[in-house]
Amino acid sequence: MELYSAAAERQDWKGAAAAMQAALAKEPGNADFHSLYAYSLRKGGTQDMDLVFKHYNEALRIDPRHKGAHEYLGEAYLMVGNVAKAREELSALDKLCFFGCSEYNDLKKSISEHEAKAK
Q1: Distance between CA atoms of 51 and 106, rounded to whole angstroms?
Q2: Which residues have C-beta within 8 Å of that of residue 54, sequence separation ≥ 6?
């Protein structure tokens, strides 16, 4: 995690992805690692969105209550123009965040901004 944190702080997303790939090799059942790997790929501008979706979905398979993975998966759906799927992730967060949470608020804001740009 130290290598990931240092790389992410520098916005070295390729380095962050490499750190998470190495971490996943050691702990393939870690939902946080799958989510952070997908996040690093996405922030690094990957064109392989299938790989991004694969790792967010794996994080949620391991931990269906992983709020970060729900938020970031929703943002990934917005990147490919799938607002309906992003709203599904927002709905999942609404159920998980009984009294509200930053992940819900952030995704809701991202959806609103995406829709405003689309008009």
Answers
A1: 23
A2: 38
Note if the pTM is more than 0.85: yes
17 closest CA partner among 27, 4, 26: 4
DSSP string, 42-53: HHTT-S-HHHHH
How far is the C-alpha of 10 from the C-alpha of 40, rounded, in Å?
12
Q: Averaged over 1-9, what is the pLDDT?
A: 91
Predicted local distance difference test score (pLDDT) of residue 99: 86
Q: List C-alpha distances in Å: 32 to 56, 82, 108, 112, 113.
A: 9, 24, 22, 27, 27
pLDDT tens string 43-77: 999 999 999 999 999 999 999 999 999 999 999 99
